[in-house]
Design goal:
The complex is a heterotrimer of chains A (about 325), B (about 350) and C (about 350).
Chain A lengths: L1 H27 L3 H9 L5 H11 L5 H14 L1 E3 L2 E3 L14 H36 L4 H14 L3 H14 L16 H35 L2 H8 L4 H38 L5 H10 L3 H29 L8
Antiparallel strand pairs in A: 1-2
Helix pairs in contact in A: 1-12, 2-3, 5-6, 5-8, 5-10, 6-8, 7-8, 8-10, 10-11, 10-12, 11-12
Chain B lengths: L1 E14 L2 E14 L3 E5 L6 H8 L8 E9 L2 E2 L5 H7 L4 E4 L3 H4 L6 H13 L3 H14 L5 H4 L9 H13 L5 E5 L7 H18 L2 E6 L2 H7 L2 E6 L2 E7 H6 L4 H8 L45 H4 L11 E2 L5 H15 L1
Parallel strand pairs in B: 3-8, 3-9, 6-7, 7-8
Antiparallel strand pairs in B: 1-2, 1-4, 4-5, 9-10, 10-11
Chain C lengths: L9 E14 L10 E14 L3 E5 L6 H8 L7 E6 L2 E2 L5 H8 L2 E4 L13 H11 L8 H11 L16 H13 L5 E5 L7 H18 L2 E6 L2 H7 L2 E6 L2 E7 H6 L4 H9 L41 H5 L5 E2 L8 E2 L13
Parallel strand pairs in C: 3-8, 3-9, 6-7, 7-8
Antiparallel strand pairs in C: 1-2, 1-4, 4-5, 9-10, 10-12, 11-12
Helix pairs in contact in C: 3-4, 3-5, 4-5, 5-6
Classes of the chains: A mainly alpha (about 325), B alpha/beta (about 350), C alpha/beta (about 350).
Chain lengths: ~325, ~350, ~350
């Protein structure tokens, strides 16, 4: 298990390295003058641009710039006359703050959104799916699947204004979406995020309900379920302990992919609810051509996907003993 | 002492094409500690009738009629709760393919222990001890270590042994074995049959052995029931049915398989044609379209009147042929076969 | 009972035939590489018009051997000679004319026929692929073939699902016959069928062998069926032939302990016969072909095994006093007669 983790982490680092190289090339292959111009805005003079170029090291060949960038991540580096502490992803062109600090500052918002939504749509999606599988062909099944179909066809940018209007602007039923740290006040944290959670959950529940239903139906048709019933186990044990155990693998697979989608979708979700998370940071840094910040966000998103994949693999092995976790 | 008594059992499935009469009037008795071999081909209703005994059919599409009495308990129409109490406890079942029949997600020990706990309410520790004990009983070496392994770490023969351990852990009065050795190699099959015999004499379990293999029946069964198209066509002791079979279908089954000691120059005598549709079975005797001797019965009774298996005990067959005719035909046939 | 001496002309010869499959992984994440020694150095000869039987338990390599003989697989070692030509590593192009002469019949009559094609086009398929236009046209030939295998020639327009298991196996046989092969490799052709149907198919194959002079390699795990169908039989265990002999010799006077064990494990349909038969019960299952036992591969389950069995692999040789062509690979062969002659 440990050897497996070590191997996967090394693999993950290599993948991140490749991603960083590609994005670095894309972003910074822009001529140095233009980058420097982006960094000083309206007050640019040729002399100032030259100075910034030297300060940022933009006069050096690109591979050397990339090595400097990598070196900064692990050991910190001097940018201009300021020492940028490790892990250093450079400074924002816009607000001159270290990229890393800004991203870390925004991360809790995005994470909170994702975690809450995942918990909600797993509970409701899997629950509805189990119910539908249990009552296959009956009214409960049809209602659950009908709901799933409707929810699944929704998009966040449609649901968000609609829900905001109903629950916040016209009725005050729910607080206006905002972010309070979980560690300051768990209740406010949940209150501030409940509406986006519900919207995200509505959309994803549908999919998980259908997925759970179809994997449950598949597993229930397997021979070993007949054995489990022939052993005299209760209906609950048959469904929950045995059938659901088998149905979990496809759910874990899709969930792993969806965590990446949630991060990508954060751009739209956070904009729709005016939440100040990584998604909005991404949008703003693109609009402001804030190259170091964009790099930082991309690296964060890629790390999230890679980490999610490792977790999914570990979860697989935990669910299905036939999958061996060996190096 | 009769522990299981089945009377006029009917299992009908409703499908898009019509009602499949998978079992259509089956009766038999089984005494404590005895083995009943049920022989037949696919679609003869041998597996379906036994799933019905345990109530393991799909209740939405299946209608069950007749009577199944197990130790004075009526099983047809019994509640799911009552059936759950019985399954794995009073009546156990083992299946053909031990790989797909065991859950891949739990260790073999857990799968035995959960059955034992379910029916005895034992503590986890006691149930685990029982699991190890059962694995030892079914001849698995190093049972303590093996109990912690998953089915995929077992070989085919060991998996079937584990299935038997699950089935017998609560000391059931009846074990239904549905083609228990069909998926196994012949040398492993011999081991498993030996094991079943040993355990049967130790636990005094009654066994219903469902199989298509006449050899397995000959080795294991006390009594034999030959099924065709959802009905029993012949019943008797194993010696009666295999040595002096009465029903033309039984003749066909026996003469269509090659024997290790048989004469290789004599061709096999197959049963011609194919098994009938169970949605729209032939009128009269269901075997009549494949039977070579129906013309020997006067008044075309074979196509108009369904022959019944005499309700009395002992050797009998559901056939209109006169006893003298049967004897004559069988002697001729045996002579032809050498 | 005397057996006819094998016909003189050799049709197919395999020598030192070997098929090792690389295995990359046993689990999703492991990279452990190994080799499955599915077939590991076997010699056999099939004569024109004879039926050669291959028996053994699962994992013994009998199916792989069948596929090698039909050259559906390329062996990793040894050689195959067909009709005097070395086809061991023949290319697709070189194999084309031989493909018409060696055909296969498979076990599963449900999955070996394309459900979207009519029976007519399934049977005509081999003719189409090889550009063969029989006199009177393909359709006429298809109908002849359907008649040969005992199906209604009018049914050439139907689809496989409209037929029963036994009838589908007949369709598979008709397809194999379409090119007038000299050799048919039949891999468990009746084991998926009901007993009453098995006999129909066995009889059909037997008729084809006799009337059309087709040689068969008949692969099965059922010893009684192989005995009924094949004149010469090889017993395989873990990728090796352990014994090979004429039918009567093999079944009446087996030399290899494994053959004894196999024969004594077959349950006989006569409830009284058990008392007269020898009773050998092997322990355990067949070991993994990835890491087979050293020396004699059967030694881990053999009650006669001694030190030499682990260190030295017994060669497949004719034992003193054995009939011509009766060879066994054992250090301590059995000489008991099973049935008195």
């Amino acid at each position: 298990m440990l050897a497996f983790l070590v191997r996967r982490v090394i693999g993950a680092l290599l993948i991140l390295l490749v991603i960083s190289a590609i994005t670095f090339l894309l972003f910074f292959a822009v001529p140095g003058n233009e980058v420097a111009a982006l960094s000083c805005g309206k007050s640019c003079t040729p002399a100032l641009i030259d100075e910034i170029k030297r300060g940022l090291g933009l006069d050096q060949p690109i591979w050397q710039q990339y090595l400097t960038y990598l070196g900064g991540i692990f050991g910190g580096r001097m940018i201009g006359d300021k020492m940028c502490e490790a892990p250093c992803f450079g400074y924002s062109f816009v607000n001159r703050q270290p990229v890393f600090d800004t991203v870390v500052d925004r991360l809790p918002v995005t994470l909170s959104l994702a975690i809450g939504a995942v918990v909600l749509f797993l509970i409701f999606g899997v629950g509805l799916g189990m119910l539908a599988a249990l009552r296959k062909g009956k009214a409960a099944d049809k209602i659950a699947m009908g709901f799933a179909l409707v929810g699944g066809s929704m998009q966040i940018y449609v649901l968000a204004p609609f829900f905001l209007y109903i629950f916040v602007y016209s009725s005050d039923l729910l607080p206006r979406p905002h972010y309070v740290s979980f560690f300051d006040s768990p209740l406010d944290w949940a209150g501030g995020l409940i509406l986006p959670w519900i919207c995200l959950a509505l959309i994803h529940t549908a999919y998980y309900a259908r997925l759970t239903r179809s994997s449950m139906v598949d597993v229930l048709n397997e021979d070993f379920i007949r054995t489990v019933r022939a052993k005299g186990l209760s209906t609950r044990e048959v469904y929950v302990k045995h059938a659901f155990r088998g149905a979990m693998t496809p759910i874990a697979t899709i969930l792993g992919l969806d965590i990446a989608t949630l991060f990508a979708g954060a751009i739209i979700t956070e904009t729709s609810f005016s939440l100040v998370g990584v998604g909005q940071l991404a949008v703003n840094s693109v609009l402001a051509s804030d190259l170091p910040m964009m790099m930082g966000v991309v690296m964060l998103a890629s790390s999230a996907v890679v980490v999610a994949n490792i977790i999914v693999d570990v979860v697989y092995a935990a669910i299905d003993p036939r999958i061996k976790v060996t190096a | 002492m009769t522990i299981l008594s089945v009377r006029d059992l009917k299992v009908h499935f409703s499908t898009e094409d019509g009602v499949v009469k998978a079992v259509d009037g089956l009766s038999f008795d089984l005494a404590k500690g005895k083995t009943l071999g049920i022989v037949g081909e696919s679609g003869s209703g041998k597996s379906v009738s036994n799933l019905a005994i345990l109530g393991l059919h799909n209740p939405k599409t299946t209608t069950i009629g007749g009577e199944i009495r197990f130790n004075d308990q009526q099983l047809v129409g019994a509640s799911e709760k009552a059936m759950q109490k019985l399954r794995g406890n009073g009546i156990s079942m083992i299946f053909q393919d031990p790989l797909t029949s065991l859950s891949p997600y739990y260790t073999v020990g857990e799968q035995i222990a959960e059955t034992y706990r379910r029916h005895t309410g034992a503590t986890k520790k006691k149930a685990w001890a029982r699991a190890v004990e059962m694995l030892k009983k079914v001849g698995i070496p190093q049972p303590e270590r093996r109990a912690k392994q998953y089915p995929h770490e077992f070989s085919g023969g060991m998996r079937q042994r584990a299935m038997i351990a699950i089935a017998l852990c609560c000391d059931p009065a009846l074990l239904i074995a549905d083609e228990p050795t069909t998926a196994l190699d012949v040398t492993v099959q011999a081991q498993i049959l030996d094991l079943l015999r040993e355990l049967q004499s130790e636990f005094e379990t009654a066994i219903i052995l469902i199989t298509h293999d006449m050899g397995v029946v000959a080795q294991m069964a006390d009594d034999v029931l030959v099924m065709y198209a959802g009905r029993a066509v012949e019943r008797g002791t194993v010696r009666e049915v295999l040595k002096t079979p009465e029903h033309p279908y039984s003749w066909g089954l026996l003469s269509s398989i090659p024997h290790l000691g048989g004469d290789v120059d004599v061709p096999l005598v197959p049963v011609r044609g194919t098994p009938p549709s169970l949605i729209d079975p032939p009128t009269g005797c269901p075997f009549n379209p494949r039977c070579d001797y129906r013309d020997r019965v006067p008044d075309s009774r074979c196509t108009t009147e369904r022959p019944l298996l005499a309700p009395a005990d002992g050797h009998g067959s559901a056939c209109h042929l006169a006893a003298a005719d049967k004897k004559l035909i069988r002697t001729d046939e045996l002579q032809r076969l050498g | 009972m005397t057996e006819v001496a094998a016909p003189t002309k050799e049709l197919l010869t395999a020598s030192g035939l070997q098929m090792h499959f690389p295995v990359r992984a046993t689990g999703l994440f492991s990279r452990k590489a190994g080799v499955v020694q599915a077939v590991d150095g076997i010699d056999l000869t099939v004569h024109e018009g004879e039926s050669f039987g291959l028996v053994g338990e699962s994992g013994c390599g009998k199916s792989t051997t069948g596929r090698l003989i039909a050259r559906l697989l390329e062996p990793t070692g040894g050689s195959i000679t067909y009709d005097g030509k070395d086809i061991t590593h023949a290319t697709r192009k070189q194999l084309a004319p031989i493909r018409t002469e060696i055909q296969m019949i498979f076990q599963d009559p449900y999955s070996s026929l394309n459900p979207r094609h009519t029976v007519g086009s399934i049977i005509a398929g081999p003719m189409e692929v090889n550009g063969i236009n029989p006199p009177g046209g393909r359709q006429k030939r298809v109908q002849e073939l359907l008649e040969t295998v005992g199906l209604n020639p009018e049914h050439y327009n139907r689809y496989p699902h409209e037929f029963s298991g036994g009838q589908r196996q007949r369709i598979g046989i008709a397809r194999a016959l379409a090119l007038q092969p000299k050799l048919i490799v039949a891999d468990e052709p009746v084991s998926a069928l009901d007993v009453s149907i098995q006999a129909q198919v066995v009889n059909l194959l037997q008729r084809l062998q006799r009337e059309l002079g087709i040689a068969f390699v008949f692969i099965a795990h059922d010893l009684a069926v192989v005995r009924h169908f094949s004149q010469r039989i090889a017993v395989m265990y873990l990728g090796k032939i352990v014994e090979i002999a004429d039918r009567a010799d093999l079944y009446n006077n087996p030399h290899h302990p494994y053959t004894h064990a196999l024969l004594s494990s077959v349950p006989d349909a006569d409830p009284d016969s058990e008392k007269h038969r020898e009773r050998i019960r092997l322990t355990g299952d067949v070991p993994s072909p990835i890491n087979p036992p050293s020396g004699c591969r059967f030694r881990t389950r053999c009650w006669k095994a001694q030190d030499i069995c682990a260190s030295e692999e017994p060669p497949l040789v004719q034992l003193s006093g054995a009939t011509e062509g009766h060879r066994a690979a054992c250090h301590f062969p059995e000489a008991r007669q099973v049935m008195p002659e």
